[in-house]
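quick one, 370 residues, struct below
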Amino acid sequence: MSTINHNSKSTRFASRFKLRCLWATAVLVVVIGGTALAIYQSDRTDRLADTSFRGTTIPVKVHSLGRLEPQSRVIRLSSPTAAEGSRIEQLTVREGDALHAGQVVAVLDTHDRRKSALEEAEARVRVAQAKLLQIKAGAKPGDIVAQQSVITRCRFVLKNAEAELERSRKLAASRTISESDFEQRKLQVERSQQDLEQAQATLESLQEVRQVDIDLQQQEIESAIATATRARADLDATLIKTPIAGHVLRIHTRAGERVSDKGVMEIGQIDVMYVVAEVYEADISRIRIGQSAQARLTGSTISIAGQVEEIGLIVGRKDVLNNDPVSDTDARVVEVRVRLDSADSSRVSGFSNARCEITFEGKTESHTAE
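---
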């Protein structure tokens, strides 16, 4: 009887074990099938999405910080003779004044001294030129007439000496005079002949104009002109002129003050304003010439718009920083110049160097799976 009960219990245990194995196998098959189906559906969805967006473009915005700047950029005028510690004698403009190219905006205290030096150099040029004319003209007519009179007198003296020598020769033949007296008459004739020759040579020298004298004086003139040119340049250096047409943005040095490292003043062409955006080097590939950009002055509600006109060629450090104390101040950026529309330029013409927040509107192609 006990044997029958033991066999019955073994049979029931074996049946239960087989049933559990069947359930486990069914669950495993369901899990594996569900996972495979999910993977298939996900891959199919990705393929459909990739096919639907292939070749399309999606908008991408690039944000950056920047500053306002005049068309000519901000130009800082300084003294050409800053090494001499020049002092401003006179200012001819005020802040906000309009300027034309070449206009004198300031006069240095060395202007009067340099002006006198120029006048002296120009006078030396005139003197050298007058001497050249004198050389070309030769001797004065009065000197020539006087020398001709000297020649006439020498001829008369020579003629008398020759007559005396002829009489002495006859007297010496008759031994009326001594031999020494005869030699004296002969020596007098020779002296008179030499005086006549010298007088004639002097007249020829007065009438002669030598090319070597003309060349020498021409060099003197060129040297004087060079000195005058340098003096004129030194005088021009005492006048501070604007190289462009624009407006006076700020004056750093007033009348009576010495020119410092800041220069005399800052000028710029504010009729057309630009936004200089500092775009991260990782985003610069999304910027192109002619791209639209929107900007807003930091801390204000002024919004301005323009188009990208120039993309920089140098990667450098940021100049415009935000208020975040943990911001990346060593980030590498590229400057992008955005030309503002005419209406917006006039609105912000008085805000040079103001900080801006710029957004570039662009498009880029979506990724295409292979």
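The chain has four domains: 2-53, 58-71+270-365, 75-110+238-266, 116-233.
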